[in-house]
TrEMBL record:
<protein>
    <submittedName>
        <fullName>Class I SAM-dependent methyltransferase</fullName>
    </submittedName>
</protein>
<dbReference type="InterPro" id="IPR029063">
    <property type="entry name" value="SAM-dependent_MTases_sf"/>
</dbReference>
<dbReference type="GO" id="GO:0032259">
    <property type="term" value="P:methylation"/>
</dbReference>
<keyword id="KW-0443">Lipid metabolism</keyword>
<keyword id="KW-0808">Transferase</keyword>
<comment type="similarity">
    <text>Belongs to the CFA/CMAS family.</text>
</comment>
<dbReference type="InterPro" id="IPR050723">
    <property type="entry name" value="CFA/CMAS"/>
</dbReference>
<keyword id="KW-0489">Methyltransferase</keyword>
<dbReference type="InterPro" id="IPR003333">
    <property type="entry name" value="CMAS"/>
</dbReference>
<keyword id="KW-0949">S-adenosyl-L-methionine</keyword>
<dbReference type="GO" id="GO:0008168">
    <property type="term" value="F:methyltransferase activity"/>
</dbReference>
<dbReference type="Pfam" id="PF02353">
    <property type="entry name" value="CMAS"/>
</dbReference>
Length: 422
């Protein structure tokens, strides 16, 4: 069987001229002698994944030590895209598939499970994230207003774009749902004079954001809450709400309720900016080829993606109005490659940081998983297998005389020129 598999894989490599060399435990070598990517196979089961084009399973084998990879992450991902048997956005949408997806979503997104999911990812190590994120620790898609911007400048441009889209004014109250390390709130307070609150389920992010606010002397303007968005209460609705990179964690089964909760938290006529990853296909809730399963297991348990069309349906079902939509997909590909390149340049330091809190074996698994995750997501955004959208939403107040235009029913001016710097 192993010999037959090896023969099949060797034929595939030759037929498709794949830039890969495979080295088996027996010492046998398959593929191009001068390939830039070398896969060292320690368990011949990996050959099955290669034959089927399941790159997610190959990635899992690398994380678990059943195989090793030599080559840059950019070269590895060029190869990975060639190995896929079919586009990872293709999926069957039978009624039983939809039923299973709904049940799985319900089970994955209880209050307890969501907290565990978030802490699994975001509480790995603050120092680990600081190694490859920008100085503000913005862990979401940057905005490359100029193509030659570095990551730090592009992240500031993204923060400013969010503030401009929300039309933030001095002393307005801003709620940041899933506030991360507090970067948006601090930026909005310093540059737009807002008062704000943030919500996070990550203990590490909560502690860091609290310390950052104190160091900036913003305690009288900003506060952070360690809680689920469903449990957050306020006596006075906020003027504006931002949710950046959070709704991917909500789940299909809870999406309308999520937008209803957001509507409860914003004043009538207020603005909401929802920034999140969306599915590239209309029928798949995760990437095929084993990639979605890999991310679910090693990176984002409970993560679920919706196509932009489905997301807009939930917005409408919650009684909200989407007034502006922008696709930032190419920006996220560039952002992810910046993160990947930064991590690749500091692998020994990253491993040492992880070994401060994890066993050497666990630290190695986490590092391998993140290397493949960051580069794999960059590749997926480049190919439009996944996307990302900013959806600017209003909570209509029913007053047709509200705002700058008759019939506006919100603070949104219904034009776009004020969003962008000239």
């Amino acid at each position: 069987m192993n010999k037959a598999l090896a023969t099949m894989v060797a034929r595939q490599l030759q037929q498709h001229q794949l830039p890969l060399q495979i080295r088996l435990r027996s010492g046998q070598r398959l593929g191009a002698a001068d390939a830039q990517v070398v896969l060292h196979v320690h368990d011949n089961a990996v050959l099955k994944h290669l034959a089927r084009g399941h790159i997610g399973d190959i990635a899992s084998a690398v994380v678990e030590g059943q195989a090793d990879l030599d080559g840059s992450m950019r070269e590895v991902m060029t190869l990975a895209s060639m190995l896929l048997a079919q586009a990872p956005t293709l999926a069957h949408n039978h009624w039983w598939t939809r039923l299973w997806r709904y049940g799985h979503s319900l089970a994955q997104h209880s209050l307890h499970q969501d907290a565990a999911n978030i802490q699994f990812h975001y509480d790995v190590s603050d120092d680990f994230y600081a190694l490859w994120l920008d100085p503000r620790r913005i862990y979401s898609c940057a905005y490359y207003r100029a193509t030659d911007m570095d990551l730090a400048a592009a992240q500031e441009a993204k923060l400013d774009l969010i503030c401009r889209k929300l039309h933030l004014q001095a002393d307005e109250r801003l709620l940041d749902i899933g506030c991360g390390w507090g970067g948006l709130l601090v930026y909005a307070a310093e540059h737009y004079g807002i008062r704000g609150s943030g919500i996070t389920l990550s203990r590490n992010q909560y502690a860091y954001a609290q310390a950052l606010i104190a160091a900036k002397g913003l305690q009288n303007r900003l506060s952070i809450h360690l809680c689920d968005y469903r449990d957050f209460q306020t006596d006075t609705p906020f003027d504006k709400v931002a949710s950046i990179g959070m709704f991917e964690h909500v789940g299909h089964a809870h999406m309308t309720a999520y937008f209803q909760t957001v509507r409860r938290l914003v004043k009538a006529g207020g603005l909401i900016l929802n920034h999140g990853i969306t599915a590239g296909g209309t029928r798949n809730s995760q990437l095929g080829g084993g990639m979605g399963d890999f991310i679910e297991k090693y990176i984002f348990p409970g993560g679920e993606l919706l196509h932009i069309g489905e997301a807009l349906r939930h917005v409408a079902d919650a009684g909200l109005e989407a007034v502006d939509i922008e696709n930032l997909r190419p920006h996220y590909a560039k952002t992810l490659w910046a993160w990947s390149d930064a991590l690749e340049a500091q692998l020994p330091a990253a491993l040492a940081i992880l070994e401060n809190t994890l066993s050497p074996a666990q630290a190695n698994r986490v590092l391998r998983a993140y290397r493949l995750y960051l580069a794999g997501c960059a590749m997926s955004f480049e190919h439009a297998w996944i996307s990302i959208h900013q959806i600017l939403v209003t909570a209509p107040d029913g007053d047709v005389n509200h705002g700058r235009l008759r019939g506006a029913q919100s603070d949104y001016p219904f034009k776009r020129d004020w969003m962008y710097l000239t």
